[in-house]
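tokens incoming
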């Protein structure tokens, strides 16, 4: 069986900051350079391995992923959702995940989940 980088990351210390975690899904802020247009990027990831949206059973987790996105986005949620589904679509990490590129409107709710930790390190 081939090792999955996302499964490995979820099993050990994350390479990012977990901002929400439930039994089946989690949200992880991504480190790295961001543009001024998308000052924050995070991922929504199922904890169980699904290669992509076409994987058997993936439809059962998409509802939970969507609910988490709606919760984190808040009432005025404006964001870009990216899901590369398959090799020819640009998927390079074969574990279902969504990239969410967001704006300052989501920072207060993210701050709630980060607790007392500063948000300065996520600004673009």
């Amino acid at each position: 069986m081939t090792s999955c980088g996302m499964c490995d990351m979820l099993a050990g210390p994350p390479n990012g900051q977990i901002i929400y975690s439930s039994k089946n899904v989690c949200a992880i802020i991504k480190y790295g350079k961001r543009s001024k247009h998308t000052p924050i990027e995070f991922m929504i990831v199922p904890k169980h391995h699904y290669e992509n949206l076409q994987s058997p059973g993936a439809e059962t987790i998409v509802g939970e992923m969507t609910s988490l996105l709606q919760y984190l986005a808040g009432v005025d949620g404006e964001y870009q959702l990216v899901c590369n589904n398959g090799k020819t679509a640009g998927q390079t990490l074969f574990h279902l995940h969504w990239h969410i590129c967001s704006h300052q409107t989501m920072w207060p709710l993210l701050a709630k989940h980060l607790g007392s930790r500063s948000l300065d390190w996520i600004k673009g």
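note: The mean pLDDT is 77.
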